[in-house]
């Protein structure tokens, strides 16, 4: 029998896992995370590249930042966002590869 990997999950772990999958369940958030996979971008750059409204991008980035999936740095009045969780980015890329397979 396989080593016991299905041990009981605590409430916090269950919450974090479910929120991670919630983040990856939204097409707009997937597009944003995919765009941020290789380099940082400002809200305006993201909005322009993905043909999204700035308000939409800001709202989705706030959601992703609260889950620590993206991080930001400030340069003057501009915020630059980048991915902040290699595990989730790998999961996203595996899901994309699976979908294309």
UniProtKB/TrEMBL annotation:
<feature type="domain" description="HTH arsR-type">
    <location>
        <begin position="9"/>
        <end position="101"/>
    </location>
</feature>
<dbReference type="InterPro" id="IPR011991">
    <property type="entry name" value="ArsR-like_HTH"/>
</dbReference>
<dbReference type="Pfam" id="PF01022">
    <property type="entry name" value="HTH_5"/>
</dbReference>
<dbReference type="InterPro" id="IPR001845">
    <property type="entry name" value="HTH_ArsR_DNA-bd_dom"/>
</dbReference>
<dbReference type="InterPro" id="IPR036388">
    <property type="entry name" value="WH-like_DNA-bd_sf"/>
</dbReference>
<keyword id="KW-0238">DNA-binding</keyword>
<dbReference type="InterPro" id="IPR051011">
    <property type="entry name" value="Metal_resp_trans_reg"/>
</dbReference>
<keyword id="KW-0804">Transcription</keyword>
<protein>
    <submittedName>
        <fullName>Winged helix-turn-helix transcriptional regulator</fullName>
    </submittedName>
</protein>
<keyword id="KW-0805">Transcription regulation</keyword>
<dbReference type="InterPro" id="IPR036390">
    <property type="entry name" value="WH_DNA-bd_sf"/>
</dbReference>
